[in-house]
């Protein structure tokens, strides 16, 4: 953030005031821009090659795909001059791709584990001597029906915020995880139906799960 703000503020000063003090052939703005970019890119590469936590990978990819090319380089005071310089990306494409794969692998596992924990909690609730919650007057599981959908949607949205390609790849992966989760849900529900017919709230639990199916569709 500090480097980005410094680069943006300094280049704005160069574009507005310093550039016009030199003959055009000196390419003053281009020299400043290339030096700032090369330093910024070297720091980004150094960070990318070190051990990064998942949140750091996400942040670095956000800089590579969004903050740097869109927020900084498309700034109204700089865009015209920067378009002439052709600075390129903050990271080499191979390194950027490596980070994207790490992020996708991690996010896929996170969502998968989150769905699994959610189902375990739901199964545990079936075993309790409690009536299911009602939403808009109908039995339904807010934990299962809403949490699962929100988990997948928010994960897709975060990935799309990095780039369209990353978002599409994560969506493709999660579309494999969702059927796997639904199969586990179905199997657990069938087991409950067979073994828990004497449960105090057997019928409301069945209704709640049938209502969940509408949300999942």
From TrEMBL:
<dbReference type="Pfam" id="PF06046">
    <property type="entry name" value="Sec6"/>
</dbReference>
<protein>
    <submittedName>
        <fullName>TNAP2 protein</fullName>
    </submittedName>
</protein>
<dbReference type="GO" id="GO:0000145">
    <property type="term" value="C:exocyst"/>
</dbReference>
<dbReference type="GO" id="GO:0006887">
    <property type="term" value="P:exocytosis"/>
</dbReference>
<dbReference type="InterPro" id="IPR010326">
    <property type="entry name" value="EXOC3/Sec6"/>
</dbReference>
<dbReference type="GO" id="GO:0051601">
    <property type="term" value="P:exocyst localization"/>
</dbReference>
<dbReference type="GO" id="GO:0000149">
    <property type="term" value="F:SNARE binding"/>
</dbReference>
């Amino acid at each position: 953030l500090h480097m980005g703000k410094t680069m943006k503020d300094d280049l704005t000063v160069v574009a507005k005031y310093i550039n016009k003090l030199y003959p055009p052939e000196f390419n003053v703005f281009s020299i400043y821009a290339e030096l700032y970019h090369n330093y910024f890119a070297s720091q980004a590469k150094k960070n990318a090659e070190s051990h990064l936590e998942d949140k750091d990978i996400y942040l670095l990819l956000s800089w590579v795909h969004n903050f740097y090319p869109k927020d900084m380089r498309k700034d109204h005071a700089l865009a015209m001059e920067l378009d002439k310089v052709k600075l390129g990306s903050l990271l080499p494409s191979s390194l950027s791709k490596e980070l994207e794969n790490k992020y996708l692998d991690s996010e896929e596992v996170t969502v998968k584990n989150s769905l699994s924990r959610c189902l375990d909690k739901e199964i545990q609730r079936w075993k309790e001597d409690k009536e299911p919650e009602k939403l808009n007057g109908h039995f339904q599981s807010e934990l299962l029906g809403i949490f699962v959908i929100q988990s997948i949607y928010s994960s897709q949205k975060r990935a799309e915020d990095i780039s369209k390609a990353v978002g599409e790849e994560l969506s493709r992966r999660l579309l494999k995880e969702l059927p796997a989760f639904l199969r586990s849900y179905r199997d657990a529900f069938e087991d409950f139906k067979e073994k828990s017919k004497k449960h105090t709230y057997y019928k409301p639990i069945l209704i709640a799960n049938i209502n969940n199916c509408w949300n999942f569709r």
